[in-house]
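Q: Hi! First time doing this. I have a protein sequence and I read that you can turn it into a structure. Is that right? Here it is:
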Amino acid sequence: MKVTISQVSNYIDQEVTIGAWLANKRSSGKIAFLQLRDGTGFMQGVVVKAEVGEDVFKVAKSTTQESSLYVTGIVKKDERSPFGYELSVTGLEVIHEAVDYPITPKEHGTEFLMDHRHLWIRSRKQHAVLKIRNEIIRATYEFFNKNDFTKIDPPILTGSAPEGTSELFHTKYFEEDAYLSQSGQLYMEAAAMAFGKVFSFGPTFRAEKSKTRRHLIEFWMIEPEMAFYQFEDSLKVQEQYVEHIAQAVLANCKLELKTLDRDVSKLENIKAPFPRITYDDAITFLKEQGFDDIEWGDDFGSPHETAIANSYDKPVFITHYPTSLKPFYMQPDPEREEVVLCADLIAPEGYGEIIGGSERIHDVDLLDQRVEEHGLEPEAYKWYLELRKYGSVPHSGFGLGLERTVAWLSGTEHVRESIPFPRLLNRLYP
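A: Yes, that's right. Below is the predicted 3D structure, encoded as structure tokens:
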């Protein structure tokens, strides 16, 4: 019977056949240990010469790394195995023998591994990171579906930019100028006026020449938008959502977290509510921590965010940034016009901002003024302004960066490992 590694717990003491690749092996004169993978998991196959005969044992000893096989054997419980089971091999059939597989068990440099990303994702740790990514995606759909959100897909090609065009990829759209989207937010606002609560999940692009461990050129965003939700309402949704995906990873990725040596106690603590600090108080705190060059009106960099995050054992909201630092569409604080009703959610352990969100301006005159102040082309935003002309309501939304969230929850140092095929400043291959 053909089964997958993920299914073997249903076949204890039964003979099964698994289509697999040989990730690694070690052998002696009488026994061989085959590290098998099939995409659903990793499992050890044990080949005993006295039980299988000379021919099968010879195949086990000679088969090369990453060769593909049909492996037949008896499923056995094994308390010593992290997986909990092993296969007592009775037969082997080589499907294709791999020759000179480039990624060997020895150490390799990062650039070498990135050049071979198409093969590196087969490795145990990379597999674990991407399985955690998949669980976050699954839990995202679960959360928003349970809370009556409708998924809406915004366009990737746009004629305008929600936050200015300086960091966008420009292309020609027949005779017009177009840009690769840096956010689906404006379109989600239109969708929220039709469906109430919506979310998008798709690729976004930033032509930002950054080489930090937090930045990618192409990344994926989850962007909810909610009609009749004000600033405080949105913060509660953000807390609930982040708690939900963190607890889903804890519950459903135990083996992957163990493979990555992730300290799960840090994840167990990710429960709402999250602490908050205003931008004003953050400036005061940073000065007390020795950041003498930071002044009110300055944006925070990675060292500033990390210093703030290290003061808490949960993600922390930094709220009420200066209006001058944020995009044109954010609602000013009615009690203090120089700041906006916004928040960035900063992950612990130095992973930086994972969510940016705000209440949106719903007054057409104020939004018109902001478009002009930011030097934007009014005609390009005509449709967006019309959302405030025909039944405008208070509304709020946010965007969560998937790759930073994957890196944080999995404990992976660099976001390049939290996406299958990263696009970096100097990398468009493979």
